[in-house]
Request: fold
Amino acid sequence: MGANRINGKSVCITGATSGIGKATARLFAEEGASLILTGRRKTRLDTLSDELKQNHGVAVSVYDFDVRNQEACISFVNGLDGSIDILVNNAGLAKGADSVYAADVSDWETMIDTNVKGLLYLTRLVAPGMKERNAGHIINIGSIAGHESYPGGSVYCATKHAVKAITESTKKDLHGTRVRVSMVSPGLVETEFSNVRFNDDNEKADQVYKGMQPLVAQDIAEIILFTANRPAHVNIMDTFVLPVYQSSSQMVHRDE
Ligand code: NDP
Ligand code: 8X3
Reply:
């Protein structure tokens, strides 16, 4: 990895109770970052905080709130002691995989409110300080679903296309400053993502990764860390990363 440009930085990771966010928290703790971790499940945040403090001696603060709640996002950011150097907008989810003519409308609301509006609320609250300090980095978690659309994914794909658009516009809005704006766009990663998508039908979730080797959260955490750890003049816009057995959303090779 070379030079450590993360040590002592204040890093906020949303959705740190599971999967990519949790793996990213562990990796940034290893590098000596001060962590601000969020999610709705407080017990998981507390357990992770204890682990990271004990193993790495870093400062960790945790905040349990729902990113869909704008007031909660405002209280969170206004209540922080210091500023955020790196914001990893990771909290997100898919709900359902039904066709647009059959899907549950409340699943659409959940995905749009979390993946788009939650990410926007936090960006709106954190970006002004970064602009003022002329420093900082916003890293959004996009998806293969932000680069192509698949059947049964109309709204999830729409939200991740929105993340791509927001990332690109944010970069342009901050043009001429030293604030960096990036995105990481993974294909299939085995986390709790599919369990959440299929409402804890774990058999259905397991089918998603059957016979193929998916990415794991650590693979994406390493890319997020790499993106954050580039020299200050380097702005990675997007890293689109797939498992070797995946070539598009619908082309997934499976061993018998
Ligand atoms: P997980 O389900 O394992 O983790 C999702 C995280 O998001 C959890 O920590 C969860 O915390 C948090 N979260 C969800 N909704 C909210 C909310 N309303 N408020 C606050 N936090 C919330 O999935 P992944 O780690 O896989 O997902 C992380 C990101 O990666 C998502 O944006 C996802 O879309 C994206 N992604 C995932 C891929 C995959 O194949 N797994 C591929 C491409 C992108 P809690 O429930 O405690 O609130
Ligand atoms: C998650 C990957 O292919 O299930 O963003 O949409 S996919």
In short: The mean pLDDT is 98. Residues 105-133 form the longest helix (29 residues). The CA atoms of residues 77 and 137 lie 16 Å apart. The beta strands are 10-13, 34-39, 60-64, 86-89, 137-141, 180-186, 189-190, 215-216, 238-241.
